[in-house]
Design brief:
Number of domains: 2
CATH topology of the largest domain: Na+/H+ antiporter like fold
Structural class: mainly alpha
Radius of gyration: 22 Å
Shape: globular
Largest sheet: none
Number of helices: 21
Helix content: over 70%
CATH class of the largest domain: Mainly Alpha
Number of strands: 0
Strand content: under 5%
């Protein structure tokens, strides 16, 4: 592929990725959903135009022949996938950096209740739903459980900040519980991926895993050893990455451009170590982000903003476009597809709202706060779409369920922020009306600790 050909294709794709989300944002559509739709519209999804092969043919005079145009289109599609994979790493590491556990002491009970109930109840719903269609696919059942259990950090944080609830007991509880459940769901995803390699005749693609290469020696103890390694990896990586990041910052100095490269190196190294033990790189990226959270966010917010700009401004959009391009709406013609979509939406929304509601009611909050907390756990974006893409790529997740997750992300994301506003601010809660007690919090919690 010549430089001119690459430039034209990249320019066309970037233009679509910039203009379409900008227009859709005017009507309240989140950029993540817009980018998913972009991928659906330009990819071979059944409703798309397969834009990249069309452009390659249109500029065939630069390529040389129709055969070379097809090869160029395939190469550029692979390039988008690789950028998306790098965007996935940035997304998970940034999600880890957003975590702040200093607040847990001021709202311990609601955090525990929310974390436990909003993980176990939806996970059970997702597990049983997938089991209904595929009773023998234990790895798929666990992966679908992890999808249902995950929350959307990308929705919860902005909504809490916009509604100015970050200094409240309600806001702190929901934010911390979101981080906890996301960690648990990512670990469950890692177990599902490894279990698929143990139970599937096809196995996993060739990996760097040392544990995988010696799996026969462990026999039936493989999963116990792997689970212990996951726990040890999480603890050691968080502690090790924190110390390395702190030492690097003290020697290089805050604000220097080299620190961006150093942070990226630390994250890549942590992800590689995880891969050596069979732990998917998204787990390693997330855990490395957790370890760097206090170092980056508390010592040099400018560094965090730079890293965030690279991710959200360049790489992460390609992740969602690539996920959208992999969606195949033609499978909806297969028997049972519509029922899978409807059941997925109903089970997830029902289990999320119910578990969040009862978690806060058991913690002493009123009905309004409980309902709002349940709704805040409903949107399924970054972590859910990421896990679904990994499951589909490895062959763990059936195509109909993958498409159901894409539809789920759109259906659950758009209305939730407006519903939460309507519920929390009903009858003048923000102006000192009934229900204000639900949102009081000790003075030890500061706004900057949440954002």
């Amino acid at each position: 592929m010549s430089d001119a050909t690459f430039l034209i294709l990249f320019l066309a794709l970037t233009a679509v990725m910039a203009v379409f989300p900008f227009v859709m944002k005017r009507v309240g559509v989140p950029s993540v959903i817009s980018l998913l739709v972009v991928g659906m519209l330009i990819g071979p999804t059944g409703i798309g135009v397969d834009l990249i092969p069309l452009l390659s043919k249109a500029i065939a005079f630069l390529v040389g022949s129709s055969a070379q145009a097809a090869e160029t289109a395939e190469t550029f599609t692979i390039f988008i996938d690789k950028l998306g994979a790098l965007g996935l790493m940035f997304l998970m590491s940034l999600a880890g950096m957003e975590a702040d556990f200093k607040l847990i002491g001021s709202c311990r009970k609601p955090v525990i209740m929310l974390s436990v109930l909003t993980f176990i109840v939806p996970a059970a719903g997702g597990f049983l739903l997938y089991r209904h269609y595929f009773p023998d696919a234990i790895a798929g059942q666990l992966l679908y459980a992890s999808l249902f259990a995950s929350h959307s950090v990308g929705i919860v944080f902005p909504v809490m900040r916009e509604l100015k609830l970050s200094k409240t007991r309600f806001g702190a509880s929901v934010l911390i519980a979101t981080v906890v459940t996301d960690i648990a769901s990512i670990l469950l995803l890692a177990v599902a991926v490894q279990m698929y390699g143990r139970t599937s005749s096809a196995g996993l693609p060739e990996t760097l895993s040392i544990l995988e290469r010696h799996a026969d020696l462990l026999g039936s103890n493989y999963m116990f050893v792997f689970s212990a390694l996951v726990v040890a990896y999480v603890i050691l990586t968080v502690l090790g990455v924190h110390r390395i990041g702190k030492a690097a910052m003290s020697r290089i100095g805050a604000g220097e451009d080299l620190m961006v490269t150093m942070i990226l190196l630390i994250i890549l190294f942590a992800a590689l170590i995880g891969e050596l033990f069979g732990i998917n790189f998204i787990v390693g990226s997330f855990i490395a982000g957790l370890g760097l959270s206090r170092v980056v966010r508390q010592r040099d917010m400018l560094l965090f903003r730079r890293f965030e700009s690279i991710g959200y401004g360049f790489l992460i959009p390609f992740l969602f476009v690539s996920i959208g391009m992999k969606t195949d709406f033609r499978v909806f013609a297969r028997p049972g597809s519509v029922s899978i979509i409807l059941l997925t939406i109903l089970v997830l929304v029902g289990t999320k709202v119910a578990s969040g509601f009862f978690a806060l009611r058991l913690s002493g909050f009123r009905e309004r706060a409980g309902l709002a907390a349940g709704l805040m756990t409903v949107p399924q974006l970054s972590a859910t779409l990421t896990a679904a893409a990994i499951g589909k790529g490895l062959g763990i997740l059936d195509e109909r369920f993958f498409n159901a997750v894409i539809i789920l992300s759109i259906v659950t994301t758009l209305p939730v922020p407006s519903l939460v506003r309507a519920i929390l601010f009903k009858r003048g809660v923000r102006n000192g009306g009934e229900g204000l007690d639900d949102f009081d919090i000790p003075d030890v919690v500061k706004d900057e600790d949440l954002l």
